[in-house]
Amino acid sequence: MKNRYQSSFSQDTTLISKLFNLLEIVFPGAELTTLAEQARKLGAAWEDASIPFVRFDNDGSLIAHVGVLEIPMRLMGENAIVGGVHAVCTHPDYRRRGYYREIMNEVLDYCDKRYETLVLTTSNPEYYQPFGFRFIQEHSFTTSINSEGSVNETRLLNINNIDDVRLLHRLLETRAPVSNIVGIVNEKPLFLVNEATRPMYYFPDLDTIACMSIQDNELKLYDLVAPKIFPLQELVQRIPQPIQSCSIYFSPDSLNTEAQASPEMLDGDSHLMVRGTFTPESQKFMIPRSARC
User: Domain N-acetyltransferase spans what residues (predicted)?
Assistant: First the structure.
């Protein structure tokens, strides 16, 4: 028997526009429509990646949604398909009526038959604890670097250039996990939603894309997309600016560098919530920014 709330973007062609209308109301300023449209232009449509669980009002308007997508991960050296719960929202006029609980119960029934692990990130962890999700502390990593800068051997990726788009797709399809503790393999939709409107730097001789920024001689490294992960020093010596320190927002076990781990939540309040088995739970790690949902 078909689930009560599970729907389909392909069978209901009006659903995607109704969803983004709701998301703009619930998350004003998040620019989710813009992010999703950019990802769509680059070849990763929201409706191809996410399974919607929705509730409508009597007049056909969308009043609540929970999305489920799949995230291919490397966890403690093993490949796994993890379920990602995302875009959880209820219209403000319809809250405290039990709609969220009803949909989440169906979502969990669906997911428990398919995934050993569910993940999500939220600024409101208390909403998910009643459903068996638990908070797991993540860590960032810092290391000192003494680089005076060099000849520039990087360039900004241009997502309006078809050759750069093909390059991005190739590397996403063939990427090595940035970490064997928690890494991502062959995933596009989340990456493109999370990163395509941010600067991405290409290191041609390393065939590597870096999601990074530099401020006050500090390199902030959020993700690397490459068939092979090179040591951190290999990246730094190709950056023209002087670098004195590096903050790494994923486990640096593949970077051949010593780094100090510190508890941190990305963006200050991005709590990682997990349900089910999560083999890296006792390790120090952070899910890369590009794969957070």
Answer: 7-158
CB 68 within 8 A of CB 110: yes
Q: Which residues of the chain have pLDDT under 50?
A: 1
Count of C-beta atoms within a 10 Å radius of residue 261: 17
Q: Tell me how far apart the alpha carbons of residues 216 and 231 are, in angstroms, rounded to a whole number.
A: 22
The answer to pTM > 0.85 is: yes
Alpha-carbon distance values, 263 to 28, 47, 142, 166, 271 (Å)? 29, 35, 11, 37, 11
Q: Distance between CA 69 and CA 190 in Å, rounded?
A: 9
What DSSP designation does 21 have? H
- State the Cα–Cα distance between residues 228 and 113, nearest whole angstrom: 34
What are 171-217's pLDDT values in tens digits?
A: 999 999 999 999 999 999 999 999 999 999 999 999 999 999 999 99
The domain ranges of the chain are 15-135+267-282, 140-263
SS3 call for 124:
coil
Task: Decide yes or no: CATH 3.30.70 for domain 140-263.
Answer: no
The Cα diameter of the chain in Å comes to 65
Q: How far apart are CA 176 and CA 171, in angstroms?
A: 9
Integer angstrom CA distances of residue 111 from 51, 85, 288: 11, 9, 23
Protein fold of 15-135+267-282 = Aminopeptidase (3.40.630)
Look up residue 238 and give its two tokens: 């190709």
Contact 186, 172 (CB under 8 A): yes
